[in-house]
């Protein structure tokens, strides 16, 4: 297996970029040299990593031939222009944007779900990291699909502002302060105020009246898990700094046994099942900030059908929903 002696992080100064650095600080690729890369806005800045000052390199002039692996987390436009160039230089690219996810020639990977698709993958090329909401949903549902064959998924997401970025977090904090002080609230990042509010609108609206975020969950579920599953999503932006939550209702081909569901989830890598009752049967986004697992709670059968199940799924969207999933993909391919 090839060794990743040198790794580039493109978009190193953003929220996901900083999460990459947190994870690489001591737990992953500890013997690799890390190169920080960003746009003109951030190039030249110095960031402390592994007790040393690292200067951020300018993306436009960075030589990708000197790294074996590049994590891209700088948006679709940057990925579209620079990810193929990096791959041509012999570098393996793992991209966090939506740019390549629907490309049939580029694998879309969640290690716990479809890692087998990487068998024989070359040392250079592009791998797409799925949408954060799709990742946590499919990590939770893959063992249930294996057990019962899921026919339909209805999901409502409650997505933290960190999914939009640093400016969105700052706006939430500022608007909350202004609301409590009775001040007029300026709106910048979102189309309506986010403080003390819920916006049933993540990403751009499509011609079918669903948003791009909602359609990502449909398309990506079909590509990663099963093209025959009916998926309907409603994605809601909520005033939470970090951590996405999902209310999922699923329908299966076979009758569901709740005890069997609990058993399989308790033995699924990357999943933490909350086994309490009542108020102790779930966990919240605030409690899982900075954690790596996908948390499942509020398991309950549908009131009207033995083939339907409800569950609550929570994960850190910057970690498992982005940086950690990318690192786990890389660890499948590099020593």
Highlighted features:
single chain, alpha/beta, Dihydrodipicolinate Reductase, domain 2, six-stranded parallel sheet, 9 helices, 14 strands, 24% strand
Element pattern in H and E: EHEEEEEHEHEHEHHEEHEHEEH
CATH superfamily of the largest domain: Dihydrodipicolinate Reductase, domain 2
Overall average pLDDT = 96
How many structurally independent domains?
Answer: 2
Helix percentage range: 25-40%
The CATH architecture of the largest domain can be named as 2-Layer Sandwich
According to DSSP, the number of beta strands is 14
Major pleated sheet: 6 strands, parallel
Question: Which structural category fits the helices and strands?
Answer: alpha/beta
Distance between the termini: 6 Å
**Using only CA atoms, what is the Rg?**
20 Å
The CATH topology label of the largest domain is Dihydrodipicolinate Reductase, domain 2
Give the percentage of residues in beta strands: 15-25%
Number of helices: 9
Question: What would CATH call the class of the largest domain?
Answer: Alpha Beta
